Amino acid sequence: MAPASDLITMTAAQMAAAVAAGEVSATEIATAHLRQIERTDASVHAFLHVAADAALAAADAVDKRRAAGEPLGPLAGVPLALKDLFTTTDMPTTCGSKILAGWQPPYDSTITARLRRAGIVLLGKTNMDEFAMGSSTENSALGPSHNPWDLSRVPGGSSGGSAAAVAAYQAPLATGTDTGGSIRQPAAVCGIVGVKPTYGGSSRYGVVAFASSLDTPGPLARTVLDAALLHEAMSGHDPCDSTSLDAPVPPVVAAARHADVAGLRVGVVAELAGDGYAAGVMTRFNEAVELLESLGAKVSEVSCPHFGYALPAYYLIAPSECSSNLARFDAMRYGLRIGDDGDASAEDVMSLTRAAGFGAEVKRRIMLGTYALSSGYYDAYYGKAQQVRTLIIRDFAAAFDQVDVLVSPTTPTTAFPLGERVDDPMAMYLADLCTIPSDLAGNAALSVPCGLAPEDGLPVGLQIMAPVLADDRCYRVGAAVEAALDQRRGHPLLAEARGIENADAVTREAGR
Length: 512
Hints:
Distance between the termini: 31 Å
CATH superfamily: Amidase signature (AS) domain
CATH topology: Amidase signature (AS) enzymes
Number of helices: 19
């Protein structure tokens, strides 16, 4: 058996190829990752539930299929961490909330089912901001996750647990959801790849809803090719989801293998830079743009004048939809139930349960959304926000008439310290400044690492945005940047996994 450190540092594509060739068993790979979770998760807190027995059983089933000569899928035998809002019949689904503590769904989400059929080994459920509302995973009712690059920093959110698990080599792949940047922002600050597919390209059936017109499931991985393989496995039309696109999945895997941007028109978004952007982030971003130009891309500046209104529009639209979606958590059918002593009215039970079960940020957004939808304010707030959304969609359309893809920093700063923004919601919301426009418009976007910020040595992400159903363009550009930078992704926990004492040296080497 290969050393566990070698198994956990393989790419997902390498793992699948090794399993298919009989060079290593899926059980060995799953065992190595479960041991890495045991070693590191007390510090990282990426997982809310580890399904060790089920994971080993799924891996054994893949090994038996290979031994029987059955064909295996492109990711068969590869472990994956599942964000804890994808329903699972064999694991709890809590959404990081007290109100769903211990709830075990009666059905799998469409994506969960697709991953199982693909032979992917589900390791367990990852931590997240409660009901996907947050940018740091500090809103989880079960405690924050920590960034493996610096355990005193946030891993981003709301898919922070998934990003941290991948960055900590606990899993080569993870799923997340992106509503305002909740895949791309944690991917950027954890130094991995994260993708928001075209809205409707991946099924929302069985994904607990936050904002239904924005929520988009997508992949997290350590390489662009691995993300493409998972993207393809997750995606495709689903008749159970009325917003699912009945269209072919874009050729993302082929694009990830075609790392060539010669002649591609790349637009730098003028509005996604300036005050509030860390100097180190802009340094690495500008270097990435210069790199693309050196590879033959045609770079120009593009203005999207209404992007400056994306943040306030989002924080009216998303809370409005959340106030409607979260009304289902009423203590009557499932989940937490407080005050049911026989004398309390249904209204009292609902009120007591929601008061105890929802966290502060969820309550804040429910109240904002309910207010924005209320009589006399709907047109002034929600209606105006939807008009701004239309203007942002038009900005994208005009930009894509001029260029093939748009680029920007993924986040204005690197990972900030835990606790720094918990009492300042506006500062927290600014973490999604660059990512929100693509969610409002529904187009595809990808974050790929582009180096470490000079001032703190933490990862910086390059965001690549493409038109609706042109997801493959994101992968083409991301793969080119990845190949040119020749990054070996790592961090202090990789040093621990290999038994190397000088963790700082490994971190710096890995980011070059």
